[in-house]
Amino acid sequence: MLRVKIGEQNFQKGIKSYYKKFFNSNATTDDFRVEMEKAAGLDLKIFFKQWLYQPVNPKIDAVWTYDATSHKININLTQSQLTNFNFDIPIEIGYYTKDSKTPLLLKMNLNKKQLSQSFNVKGIPENIEVDPRNVLLSSNTITKK
Predict the structure, then answer these.
(1) Would 116 disulfide with which of 8, 29, 32, 76, CB 3.0-4.6 Å?
(2) CA-CA distance, 13 to 104, in Å (whole number)?
(3) Beta strand 104-110 with 127-130: parallel, antiparallel or unpaired?
(4) What are residue 64's phi and psi, to 5 degrees?
């Protein structure tokens, strides 16, 4: 997951820097985070808080509808994990039309308990998939209304 956030090249740079600095010594998770932040030029505190210091993974419930008149797919996402913590995560939604073998991707940023968004789409969606590339450590449910 961290590789996705910062990219392969920055990840390798951060690992090498961390290893060089802390070889044969003690280090903390924060020491690792700082080296990865330096390599990527990003603030990774929220990332580490979400993925290392929370006792749960996200549980995402998706409800979707399609409006044939406006050619829009309406997606409602809800975080339903058993904590009060809300993840701030990019979500890919893949939708399939009758003839598609691979999903067409839509992107949302789920940063609160519930998020609704509409997208103009080409073709009539027959099915959707949350996180079709399996990037997230999440459990997902999907309901068509």
Answers:
(1) 76
(2) 33
(3) unpaired
(4) -135, 155
